[in-house]
Specification:
With about 170 residues, this protein is an alpha+beta fold. It has helices spanning about 100-120, 140, 150-174; strands at about 5-10, 20-30, 35-45, 65, 75, 95, 125-130. Strands 1, 2, 3, 4, 5, 6 and 7 form a seven-stranded mixed sheet that branches. Helix 1 (about 100-120) runs parallel beside helix 3. The radius of gyration is 16 Å and the shape is globular.
Length: about 170
Amino acid sequence: MESTRIIPFCVPLTPRESSGVGVVGTITLRGQSAIVWFGWGAVERREEDDCENNIRSDNSTVAVGTGRPPMGSLSVSMPPSTRKGPSRMPTPTSQLVGGSSDEDMMLGQQMSARLAKRIGWPIFVSCSFSDFGQNGVSPALAAGFDDDTMPAAMAEKEVTRILTLEKDKLVVST
């Protein structure tokens, strides 16, 4: 029987900031598939951690995220079938649930496609960056970014790291 694991993650927008808004989310693992759900949330640094070193072999975090982003659009990507060597075929992607933001839908589709291709698993992604909460100002703009693309890339890097470690654990245990 396969178990379901939920791994929370967060990515502070600025490395020097002690607390503030960042990207928070969860990765739900079931067998060889993953659901990634992320958006804006509060982030607090842990005192004992080195903020410059985000790499953790046990998927522990350098910061703690709180709050739950609202469910955004939902996309799924299936890994391209390969016969020998890397596939040059595009990654099949579908939009399962639409949302109010075209940008959120595009970020989710692109992220799920890249993750499915890298990890080799079906990947579901729900992105909710369009809900800014109070002030109506995007946390990305407040942190000095031009748009939500860089925070999404930072989140994707962290998700890739976590999924790669989890996939390696599955390979070792089988």
